[in-house]
Amino acid sequence: MEESISGFKVRGDWGDVVEHGERIALALREVGVDEDAYYEFDEWRPKTHERIDEDVSEKTAAQASVDEGKGERAGKSPGDDLQTAGEKLTESYEKVEENDTESARERWGESIEHVARAADSASRKALRKVEDAVYRNVMTQMAPYYFDNELVSANIQEVARAEDGETFVFEVNVNDDELKAEVSDVLGDYESEIDRWHVDTEKRTEDVAAAEGVEPPAEEGGPDSTTT
């Protein structure tokens, strides 16, 4: 592993980059990071059973997509909001006829809000379609697969391909300098204390466990393991 101002970087085969991601994830946990931003990175980081041009590409496109707006978070489609906007507009006219100008103004304002929310939802949905196509088919051919949130910034790129396999470069930067220094210390301990890292692998034990009537065994390695 190389450490620089831009982050913690490793160059090697797929197993090397998977191990690098696991070490950083575990180091973050050891220094006390336990928040949504951590789990977002832990979900995105490359896994043993994944492929960069399929799984990591899909996760990169999803992570880069436009966030949901108010309407989407409320579970309402643009059509739903437009229908509600029409209902509020009708109520506004009724209040005008009743000489209740204050209520009429409120209903009119609510109608405008729903129209704006419908437009926002429709725009976000259209942008996501464009983004997904761009990231999957264009950007990932030109730039590294990347991840970015308030906790870490990371990117992985295939830099060589030969008969004996592919070579990747995987770099992760912890955005907070103090936290980065703590993670660096933990990673240094791993380098000096752990002779062999047990890379976490996806195990299909559910079917066997069900057939034998036993609980599936706990997985070794990875961010939740203390195996050395």
Terminus-to-terminus distance: 18 Å
Helix count?
A: 8
Shape: elongated
According to DSSP, the number of beta strands is 5
Hey, roughly how much beta strand do the residues contain? Answer: 5-15%
Fraction in helix: 55-70%
Mean pLDDT across the residues is 79
Please list the strands of the largest sheet in the order they lie side by side: 1-2-5-4-3
Q: From the alpha-carbon coordinates, what is the Rg to the nearest angstrom?
A: 25 Å
Structural class: alpha+beta
Q: How is the main sheet built? A: 5 strands, antiparallel
One letter per element, helices H and strands E, the order comes to: EEHHHHHHEEEHH
Pfam family, one: DUF5828
Region (Disordered): 49-107, 198-228
Biased composition (Basic and acidic residues): 49-58, 67-79, 88-107, 198-207
InterPro entries: DUF5828
